[in-house]
Amino acid sequence: IAVNSDGSVQQSTSIAAAGGLLRNHLGKCVVAFLANLGTYTITRAEMVGAITGLEMAWTSGYRKVSLRLDSTTAITILTARDNRSNIYYNLTRRFRELMERKWEVKISHSYRECNKAADYLANKAHSFTLGTHYFGISYSGLNFLILYDRMGIAQNHFI
After folding, report:
1. Degrees (nearest 5) of the Cα angle 10, 16, 17?
2. Distance between CA atoms of residues 39 and 13, nearest Å
3. Most CB within 10 Å of its CB: which of 26, 56, 73, 131?
């Protein structure tokens, strides 16, 4: 299963959000999430998105996962050696706990052009109440973005 996630911060309010989806081997959305996080940094939002996506994959029973993020900063922090003085220590510890489970997780950088569906969900999350919201089927507007992600086609607007 592929897990794509993304983070978003509204500059005017500093409110952060994350969004993501699980896609099967055919590229179809299996489940999606939106998370309105409150006041966070963009890096923290990206990391929360990755962790939420992995937790969703584990809970759904998937044991071979491809985690795709468009933030090289989040990837670097999440995969760095344990550093208790790191301001993201609680998140990196939770990430390591997930990675130590009996499953195969490959982490890779995904160009923004191939992560528009997760970006759309992260931006949409700003209009939801605080907390994480799950959708068992493809969220409205995602089908074309998922197709564009698979093809690597950049889009300048959201549906």
Report:
1. 110
2. 8
3. 56
Q: What is the dihedral of CA 101, 54, 107, 33, to 10 degrees?
A: 180
112-145 burial code (b ≥16 CB/10 A, e <16) = eebbbbbbbbbbbbbeeeeebbeeeebbeebeeb
Nearest to 93 by CA among 104, 70, 73, 77: 77
CA geometry: angle 123, 45, 47, nearest 5 deg: 130
39-71 exposure pattern, b = at least 16 Cβ within 10 A, e = fewer? ebebbbbbbbbbbbbbebbeeeebeebbbbbbb
Place of tokens 């985690």: 67
C-alpha dihedral sign at 26, 56, 21, 118: negative
